[in-house]
Amino acid sequence: MRSVIVTLILVVLALVVGVIALGLGDYSVAPARVVAALTGGGNRFEHLVVVEWRLPRVLMALLLGAALGAAGAIFQSITRNPLGSPDIIGFNSGAYTGALVVILVAGQVGYVSRAVGALVGGIVCALVVYLLAFRRGVRGFRFIIVGISVSAMLEAVNAWLIQKADLSQAMSVATWGAGSLNGVTWSQAGPAAVVICVLVPFVLVAGRRLELLDLGDDVASALGVRVESTRLALIVLGIALIAVPAAVAGPIAFVSLAAPHLARRLVRGSGAMLLPAAAMGALLLVLADTVGQHAFGDKQLPVGVVTVSIGGAYLLWLLAWEGRRM
Question: Which UniProt keywords apply (predicted)?
Answer without folding.
Answer: Cell membrane, Membrane, Transmembrane, Transmembrane helix, Transport
